[in-house]
Amino acid sequence: MSEKTSFWTRLTGGLARTRDRIGACLSNMASGQIDENTLDELEEILILSDIGVTTSAKLIERLKARRGEAAEVEGLKNILRQEMQSMLEAPKPLLWHFEARPEVVMVIGVNGVGKTTTIAKLAFWLKGQGKNVLLAAGDTFRAVASEQLVKWGERLNCPVVWQKSGADPSGVAFAALDQALEESFDVMLLDTAGRLHTKVNLMEELKKIHRVLGKRLAGAPHKVLLVLDASTGQNALSQGRMFNQATPVDGLILTKLDGSAKGGVVLSLCAELKLPVCFIGQGEGMEDLAVFNASEFARAIV
């Protein structure tokens, strides 16, 4: 089994419950009976699939507008898939041009989403693109986080800048950027402490890190990536809103899609936050991160 096939298999498996709910509803619609009642039923299924009330309503509106194109249920499926793909592709894609050197990438998110492991996977992907990567352990609240990143750095052959537990995260970011500039790294990946999106003081700290990086290098950080746990459903949307207010987010990385019954939240994230999903993660291996593909994801749901 090829790596691509394996990843596709895991994606479709992870979204099985979402797809089965929608598929069962569509299959129950007899040919020629695509009426208001059946569309209302489909809307309920979309909401239960964690696509959310607002986004589900938008999808149903689009289906109603195109109902004349669907003579049978299979046609409705195709339209639904097309509209989902359109939503997923709507935000501008986050391009990795590497015009800046180093390209500074700040990675944020709440506790427990797999942020540090995701950074290691991203470093592995970047090295596969031929990039020289420096890691920065900006999570100084948990000693284990720095230790974890150092271990990943050893496995990946990536240098890691870290300081003792309790150090100022902004200081770590500044020191790492100094080294990245002096040693001409292509990319600097900055880990940050996981924080609840409702904690104002911790969100203010993110703003400080952002300011410090910008003072050291104009335009830095060049990308702010928010890591979200897909299995949390609509709570991921709330996190996205709050983090985006504190530090403007450029793109999303979704983790834990290998066993999620709530993968429909991806549609809400794209439709309501207008942010692109850059990568999706499935599993703990360094290779278990894939560039997001809207077409494949829409097919996995419908």
How are the SSEs ordered, and which strands pair?
Blueprint: H1 3-14, H2 16-27, H3 36-51, H4 53-65, H5 73-89, E1 103-108, H6 115-128, E2 133-138, H7 143-156, E3 160-161, H8 169-182, E4 187-192, H9 200-216, E5 223-229, H10 234-246, E6 251-255, H11 265-273, E7 277-281, E8 289-291, H12 294-301
Parallel strand pairs: 1-4, 1-5, 2-3, 2-4, 5-6, 6-7
Antiparallel strand pairs: 7-8
Outline the structure in words:
The structure is a single chain. This protein has 302 residues and is α/β, with parallel strands linked by helices. The protein contains twelve helices and eight strands. It has helices spanning 3-14, 16-27, 36-51, 53-65, 73-89, 115-128, 143-156, 169-182, 200-216, 234-246, 265-273, 294-301; strands at residues 103-108, 133-138, 160-161, 187-192, 223-229, 251-255, 277-281, 289-291. An eight-stranded mixed beta sheet has the order 3-2-4-1-5-6-7-8, sandwiched between helices. Strand 6 (251-255), helix 11 and strand 7 form a beta-alpha-beta unit. Helix 3 (36-51) runs antiparallel to helix 4 and helix 10 runs parallel beside helix 11 (265-273). The longest helix is centred in the first third of the chain and has 17 residues, at 73-89. The protein starts with a helix and ends with a helix. The mean pLDDT is 85.
